[in-house]
Write a structure and sequence with these properties.
Mean pLDDT: 93
Structural class: alpha+beta
Strand content: 15-25%
CATH architecture of one domain: 2-Layer Sandwich
Shape: globular
Oligomer: single chain
Number of strands: 18
Largest sheet: 7 strands, antiparallel
Strand order of the largest sheet: 15-12-14-13-17-18-16
Helix content: 25-40%
Number of helices: 16
Distance between the termini: 23 Å
CATH topology of one domain: Uridine Diphospho-n-acetylenolpyruvylglucosamine Reductase, domain 3
Radius of gyration: 24 Å
Low-confidence stretches: 1-7, 9-16, 475-483
């Protein structure tokens, strides 16, 4: 194929883009902007497996540099997509309109851990697990623990309002963010929130930015509260004869006990990580609950004993076993965190949905997924945070087979319909991003959606920041025309 003829208009656009790249390099340094196709490909995908190549990738080193970049993006204009570690599951970091991907990996400092006031100040590129370890060295605890905590970043966690297994007791990311520094699309720097336990001055912009998926501002500094570190922790594995028995057990456990985690795996999830569990278990087990309790050294053993006695009174339980050592507990959690990547042994592609229903309706949700499996002939399995009703429903497929794509999309639509009927929500921690945008009107009424669009337009009238996310772009914007 012959290359396209460079018309005067195209030559002008190419020259403008080259000038833009030169100006960006003046801001951050020659080596901190990449444009080679083979390098751009590394920043064209996320956890969804979809790919959208950007025109360039930039690695800013300070808030001041980000302000200058956004001033330039606003004046030109061109799209900018903030990116953490790219672990998101709904396409939030995909540059669907091309433009500039802004990678926050250089902003990776833990700026402060205030032991007396139990808070930390971090940059967005800090690995979540690194903050947890740093807090532990001061006798403190940062609870949010997404499955990717060893490589996901704090900025991404805030942008998506990440959760994790500990949410059942401790809550999610928004419950720990006290304040933010952020850059608006036009390059202005704002500060939201407080460093204190209380603060009600003005609108709560911190809560607005948490979970906004990089569509309103670029987060450059995060202040989070910390808790005293638990003195002790104990993990209990419970095997059940059926999935209904396991999910019904959840409300019973929570009525009498306060676990810090209460995780669930169905039979398929169990099967794909069976070889990673630290000990064998009966073949007839159809579901697993992983229960963890934490607290003071003298109270945790008593709590475990009371929970074990409670389980002995419940039908449908094949076995309950306490992890005998920290190593064994770590192996159990390693198996739990391995479920998502291990799923690709079933099919080459998956739709990973993170729906939430009231805990009492978990049996109905699981029953729905089993029915979809039977009736549509799709491979569906479930696992996740049963303690807060947040179940990961994985619809497996081969996208090269058109019929499988149709069946999977049908299953997703029917799943969402049932979740809403049960009084639930379409996303507990993955966000909306690209993959769920079309389903937003199923849950939100038109006045609510219109107000959200107005908020986006107020912050970002030219649709520069992360265009095409949460709300499908109604038309090509000025920024998109300059990519």
């Amino acid at each position: 194929m012959k290359p396209a003829k460079k018309t005067p208009a195209l030559r002008k656009l190419l020259e403008m883009n080259k000038k833009t790249i030169r100006e960006l390099r003046k801001i951050v340094g020659q080596d901190q902007v990449i444009t080679a196709p083979e390098e751009l490909s590394c920043y064209s995908y996320d956890g969804t497996g979809q790919e959208y190549p950007p025109a360039a990738v930039i690695f800013p080193g300070s808030s001041e540099e980000i302000c200058r970049i956004m001033q330039m993006a606003s004046a030109t204009p061109f799209p900018v997509v903030p990116r953490g570690a790219g672990t998101g599951m709904t396409g939030g970091a995909l540059p669907v309109a091309g433009g500039l991907v802004m990678v926050m990996s250089r902003l990776n400092r833990i700026l402060e851990i205030d032991q007396d006031n139990q808070l930390a100040v971090v940059e967005p590129g800090v690995i979540t697990g690194a903050l947890r370890l740093a807090a532990e060295r001061h006798g403190l605890y940062y609870p949010p623990d997404p499955a990717s905590l060893h490589f996901c970043t704090m900025g991404g966690n805030v942008a998506e309002c990440a959760g994790g297994p500990s949410a059942v007791k401790y809550g999610v990311t928004r419950d720990y963010v006290l304040g933010l520094e952020a850059v608006l699309p036009d390059g202005r720097l704002i500060h939201t929130g407080v460093r204190t336990a209380k603060g009600v001055v003005g609108y709560d912009l911190t809560r607005l930015l948490v979970g906004s998926e990089g569509t309103l501002a670029i987060i450059t500094r995060i202040t989070v509260k910390l808790l005293p570190a638990p003195e002790a922790r104990s993990t209990l594995l419970v095997l059940c004869r059926g999935m209904a028995e396991a999910t019904s057990l959840v409300t019973g456990i929570l009525a009498h006990h306060t676990p810090c985690t209460l995780e669930y795996m169905d039979r398929t999830a169990l099967a794909i990580v069976r070889d990673k569990l630290p000990f064998p278990f009966p073949q007839e087990a159809e579901a697993l609950l992983l229960v963890e309790l934490d607290g003071q050294k003298e109270t945790v053993p008593l709590a475990i004993r009371q929970l074990t006695e409670f389980l002995q009174t419940r039908p449908g339980i094949i076995m309950s076993r306490k992890a005998e050592s920290p190593v064994e507990a770590q192996q159990l959690w390693a198996a739990r965190r391995a479920i998502s990547p291990a799923a690709f042994s079933l099919k080459p592609h998956k739709m990973s949905e993170d729906v939430v229903v009231p805990r009492s309706r978990l049996p109905q949700l699981v029953s729905c997924t089993e029915a979809l499996n039977r009736e549509l002939g799709v491979v569906i399995f479930t696992f996740g945070h049963a303690g807060d009703g947040n179940i990961h429903v994985n619809i497996m497929l081969d996208r090269s087979v058109p019929q499988e794509v149709i069946q999977a999309e049908t299953a997703k639509q029917l799943l969402f319909t049932e979740v809403l009927r049960l009084g639930g929500t379409l996303s507990g921690e993955h966000g909306i991003g690209l993959t769920k945008a079309a389903y937003l009107p199923m849950e939100l009424d038109q006045p609510t959606l219109a107000l959200m669009r107005q908020i986006k337009n107020l912050f970002d009238p030219d649709n520069i920041l992360n265009p095409g996310k949460i709300f499908p772009a109604p038309a090509q914007t000025a920024a998109e025309k300059n990519i």
